[in-house]
């Protein structure tokens, strides 16, 4: 027991807990690449380098090819393409690990800055490591996590707020979620009654409009907001299932916030930030982790409010030494990584394709764009804002083998199908006289018999 009569976390245990997020980043970076959405971004980067400009029309599909569509992530796509051509996919693994590690470091430093407790920071570190495991992939949203953490860190310290417009310029060139950063700055200003934060938010909105798409950036967001029906068909945009073990840390954080509020461990002003981001987390599975970035420091404050205990000694130095050691040592854990592609992708099945017009789902489409695009045009990928709800529902029903498949195949003159092994479409095609050209435990390729 401590002198205050309360049990305290052992310093060694606390330091190990602070390293857990870093270990999570290393493990995630060394796993084979399985993210189909990330893969098409690499090809988008190659194409933009060849064309010398950002994409403003769909170059990848035979279903919507040529229709107006702006790529949100043009800046990072250029980076993907350059890194892959120069260093191979192993460079992407390093990007994942470095981005995740820097994000974790910022979350922990801001948490300590607000809580002044290594114990509370260690608890937040454990929860962050656990929660992040479900969200770490090399797609552009990963960079948005880091940029959001930078906004939070810059907002907390008045001396660094000058950087906010620059951060949001990069963010707006990488991912459409940059509006979260602007919203956070507004809410933080209201919480602290620091009205000087409001001009910073306005400057951020102006700077976002100075990216490659100009005011067209806001059109991207408008179109995306109008495609909610299509997004609902994608798992990560569904309402989060907080009974999932991967999301349990977020529930723990909510519990800490509620208990601390009941005990007076959080000031009323904190809820200017806490409440909106709690609501945001419940809108979609993919909203959970960005919400956590905003909420994590307050979870640390909530823990302190409940415990009223900190580790003895120079806490700031401990936090910074642990974080610095992780950042310095990180590259050595990735030197042997070759950026291998996961066997969950249709690598072998795609080689069996002989026709131009192939039916497949959005998961397969992302890989086909990477491996063969834009020369081979795809039926669909995960750009829900382009394809729309009706088209995506038709694709889903056809996959299930419902009679709609015949209309879809006729309308788009489908000559071959690459489908996942559990899809009901396989049985429907076999009954209609199609034959299996290729089959493995995950995918099948079928074509009309004769």
List the helices and strands and how they pair.
Elements: H1 11-30, H2 36-51, H3 74-87, H4 90-115, H5 118-132, H6 141-156, H7 164-172, H8 178-192, H9 197-208, H10 216-225, H11 228-231, H12 248-262, H13 271-281, H14 288-307, H15 315-329, H16 347-351, E1 358-359, H17 362-372, H18 384-399, H19 404-411, E2 416-420, H20 425-431, E3 434-439, E4 443-448
Structure, explained:
It is a single chain. The protein is mostly helical and 450 residues long. The chain has 20 helices and four strands. The protein has helices at 11-30, 36-51, 74-87, 90-115, 118-132, 141-156, 164-172, 178-192, 197-208, 216-225, 228-231, 248-262, 271-281, 288-307, 315-329, 347-351, 362-372, 384-399, 404-411, 425-431, and strands at residues 358-359, 416-420, 434-439, 443-448. It has a four-stranded mixed β-sheet, with helices on one face. A hairpin with a 3-residue loop joins strand 3 and strand 4 (443-448). Helix 4 (90-115) runs parallel beside helix 6 and helix 18 (384-399) packs across helix 19 (404-411). The longest helix is centred in the N-terminal third of the chain and has 26 residues, at 90-115. The protein is globular, with a radius of gyration of 24 Å. It starts with 10 loop residues before the first helix and ends with a strand.
């Amino acid at each position: 027991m401590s002198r205050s009569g309360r049990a305290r976390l052992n310093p060694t245990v606390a330091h190990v807990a602070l390293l857990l997020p870093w270990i999570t980043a290393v493990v995630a970076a060394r796993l084979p690449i399985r993210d189909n959405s990330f893969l098409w971004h690499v090809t988008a980067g190659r194409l933009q380098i060849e064309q010398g400009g950002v994409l403003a029309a769909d170059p990848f599909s035979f279903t919507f090819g040529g229709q107006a569509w702006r790529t949100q992530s043009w800046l990072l796509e250029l980076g993907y393409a350059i890194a892959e051509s120069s260093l191979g996919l192993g460079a992407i693994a390093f990007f994942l690990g470095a981005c995740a590690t820097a994000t974790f470091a910022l979350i922990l430093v801001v948490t300590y800055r607000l809580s002044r407790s290594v114990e509370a920071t260690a608890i937040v570190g454990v929860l962050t490591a656990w929660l992040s495991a479900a969200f770490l992939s090399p797609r552009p949203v990963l960079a948005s996590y880091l940029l959001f953490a930078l906004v939070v860190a810059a907002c907390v310290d008045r001396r660094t707020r000058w950087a906010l417009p620059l951060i949001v310029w990069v963010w707006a060139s990488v991912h459409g979620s940059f509006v979260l950063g602007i919203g956070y700055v507004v809410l933080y200003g209201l919480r602290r009654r620091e009205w000087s934060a409001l001009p910073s938010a306005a400057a951020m909105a102006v700077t976002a409009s100075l990216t490659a798409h100009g005011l067209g950036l806001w059109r991207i967001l408008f179109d995306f907001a109008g495609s909610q029906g299509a997004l609902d068909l994608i798992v990560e945009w569904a309402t989060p299932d907080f009974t999932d073990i991967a999301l349990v840390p977020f529930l723990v954080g909510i519990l800490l916030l509620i208990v601390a509020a009941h005990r007076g461990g959080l000031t009323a002003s904190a809820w200017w930030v806490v409440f909106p981001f709690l609501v945001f987390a419940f809108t979609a599975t993919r909203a959970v982790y960005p919400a956590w970035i905003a909420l994590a420091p307050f979870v640390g404050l909530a823990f302190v409010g409940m415990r009223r205990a900190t580790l003895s000694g120079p806490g700031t130095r401990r936090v910074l030494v642990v974080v610095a050691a992780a950042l310095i040592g990180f590259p050595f854990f990735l030197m042997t990584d070759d950026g291998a592609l996961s066997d969950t992708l249709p690598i072998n099945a795609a080689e069996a394709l002989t026709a131009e017009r192939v039916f497949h789902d959005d998961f397969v489409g992302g890989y086909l764009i990477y491996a063969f695009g834009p020369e081979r045009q795809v039926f669909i990928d995960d750009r829900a804002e382009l394809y729309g709800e009706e088209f995506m529902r038709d694709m889903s029903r056809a996959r299930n083998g419902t009679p709609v498949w015949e209309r879809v195949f006729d309308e788009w003159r489908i000559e071959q199908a690459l489908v996942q092994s559990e899809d009901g479409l396989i049985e429907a095609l076999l009954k209609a006289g199609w034959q299996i050209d290729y089959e493995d435990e995950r995918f099948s390729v079928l074509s009309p018999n004769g």
